[in-house]
Amino acid sequence: MALKELYPPIEPHESGLLDVGDGNDIHWEVCGNPAGKPVVFLHGGPGGGILPGFRRFFDPAAYRIVLFDQRNCGASRPSAGDPRVSLEHNTTPHLIADIERLREHLRVDRWLVFGGSWGSTLALAYAQAHPHRVTELVLRGIYLVRRSDEHWTFTDTGIAQLFPAEWAAFRDAVPAAERDDLIAAYGRRIGDPDPAVHLPAVRAFMAWESSANTLLPVEPPALDDAALIAAARILHHYIANGAFLPDGGLLSGIDRIRHIPAVIVNGRYDMKTPPRQAWDLHQAWPEAEFHVVEDAGHGSMEPGIRHRLIDATDRFRT
User: Fold this and answer.
1) 0.85 exceeded by the pTM?
2) What is the C-alpha to C-alpha distance for residues 296 and 303, in angstroms, rounded to an integer?
3) Span between the terminal Cα atoms of the chain, in Å
4) What is the chain's Cα-based Rg?
């Protein structure tokens, strides 16, 4: 079976900044067919921002492709790359409200929702809040943000067993006396106004975050200090607050969306969001189509993952 390739590069034909309240403007863009089926792309992170390659998961002749930078990251303003910018009004309910405001601004009635990693979290939360606005869901690298999921990432009994050198660098960037709670220790440093304190912490935090992105190592994207600070601040903010999800987490709201056609895709060797999370979602939602890609990790551009995602968007075109 030939693996599906990304669609050719494409440029937006419309873009702008949308005032979403609380002093925030989110950057958005639209490409593809202005009269096509609407789809909204939810990026990962949180705090990751959009990249041009994300436009290429969709047939530009069939889809009206909407992408946006979530609050305080990418080209949205103000940027969390400025340590003085408050994240008080950056929570999952705020992001859900932003998606709705963008939908209304673009005069979209209903749309396909596509999200990977943190984007899968936000897609599930949005769909549960507004199921009547979602035609289909395409989800990759499922991230449920349960206590056990964070234990896997931030203790020495989980992913650290597979990435010992990277874990040692992450752990040893804080004093031994504070290592019983690395999230809190990093929070104190990332939130410190002194660049001599927060920049080394941000770099160590994001190096650990990117260490297991793909099955085989690839060079991480080159980000300047401001982009790294924004990503680290937002990511830590969500981790430290349980992603601002409702009691019972995302699985408790599946009944609200089980009628929505959905495709779930996860790499067999995804070390950031192991297949157990996707499996647990599928067990709660057996109606959803479920794929484990045997030769893939977490990255959306890995060939088997990319194939399953494009296959899903192709089938949902009509």
Assistant:
1) yes
2) 8
3) 23
4) 19
Catalytic pick from 270, 282, 291, 300? Answer: 270
Active-site annotation holds for 270: yes
Q: 170-193 pLDDT, tens per residue?
A: 999 999 999 999 999 999 999 999
Which listed residue (43, 298, 300, 307) is catalytic?
298
Instruction: Exactly one of 69, 76, 94, 117 is catalytic; name it.
Output: 117
Q: What does each C-alpha distance from 117 to 43, 126, 245, 264 come to in angstroms?
A: 8, 14, 15, 11
Does 318 score more than 90 pLDDT?
A: no
Phi, psi (5° rounding) for residue 200?
-60, -35
Tally the C-alpha atoms within 13 A of residue 247's C-alpha that lie toward its C-beta. 0
Main-chain phi, psi angles of 279, to 5 degrees: -65, -45
CB 114 within 8 A of CB 39: yes
Domains of the chain: 14-147+244-315 (3.40.50.1820), 148-242 (no CATH)
The pairing of strands 24-32 and 134-140 is unpaired
Q: Does 151 qualify as catalytic in the annotation?
A: no
Is 259 among the catalytic positions? Answer: no
pLDDT in tens, 99-126: 999 999 999 999 999 999 999 999 999 9
Burial of 166 per CB tally in 10 Å (0-12, 13-18, 19+)? middle
